[in-house]
């Protein structure tokens, strides 16, 4: 009986944390100096609820960064970077990442503290990206002489530019196609 009674409470606690983190993203994206009280109001919870879940404002921000990084890592994994054909994986990952980065721009823009969960997740994402690029190179989609670390950084920059310069609500698949086409074919003339 005790275990069954604890399950709904745990689900409520998880839902409460999710609501708080979503509100924190919205509020902090608008005002990075916003208080815990402002975040509580936006989340529709009492200030004490936030303080019960997060010991400090920094703990909330760390949790926000980790949550966003976990979502980004899931978005990359959902693209099946190790098993899908490289071009398919690149497109799916890009569309997924555009959606997550669009929704969690503040949290994903935070510098990850060394050795934090977020930093470890971002390192794993970087490795997955390079692995997909290696597979793309093996299929002749990327030049054999290309520096894959440079290609990864250019790819990330293209994603960033897509997020900053496209109207909100743009089709992530269309943006992904543009990012991948630009990455693999550049701006040169098409034959």
From TrEMBL:
DNA-binding region(s), residue ranges: 35-54
GO MF, one example: DNA-binding transcription factor activity
InterPro entries hit by this protein: Homeodomain-like_sf, HTH-type_TetR-like_transc_reg, HTH_TetR, Tet_transcr_reg_TetR-rel_C_sf
HTH tetR-type domain span: 14-72
Keywords assigned: DNA-binding, Transcription, Transcription regulation
Source domain of life: Bacteria
Pfam family, one: TetR_N
Protein name per its UniProtKB record: TetR/AcrR family transcriptional regulator
Naturally occurring in which organism (per UniProt): Streptomyces xanthii
């Amino acid at each position: 009986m005790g275990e069954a009674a604890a399950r709904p409470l745990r689900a409520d606690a998880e839902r409460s944390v999710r609501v708080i983190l979503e509100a924190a993203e919205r509020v902090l994206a608008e005002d990075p100096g916003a208080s815990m009280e402002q975040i509580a109001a936006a989340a529709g919870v009492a200030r004490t609820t936030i303080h019960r879940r997060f010991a400090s404002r920094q703990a909330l921000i760390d949790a926000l960064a980790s949550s966003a990084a976990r979502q980004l890592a899931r978005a990359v994994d959902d693209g099946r970077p190790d098993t899908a054909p490289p071009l398919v994986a690149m497109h799916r990952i890009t569309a997924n990442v555009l959606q997550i980065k669009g929704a969690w721009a503040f949290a994903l823009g935070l510098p990850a503290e060394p050795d934090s969960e977020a930093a470890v997740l971002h390192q794993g994402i970087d490795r997955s990206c390079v692995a997909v690029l290696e597979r793309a190179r093996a299929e002749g989609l990327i030049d054999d002489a290309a520096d894959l670390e440079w290609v990864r950084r250019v790819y990330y920059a293209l994603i960033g530019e897509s997020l900053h310069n496209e109207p909100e609500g743009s089709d992530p698949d269309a943006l992904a196609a543009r990012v991948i086409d630009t990455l693999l074919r550049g701006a040169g003339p098409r034959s």
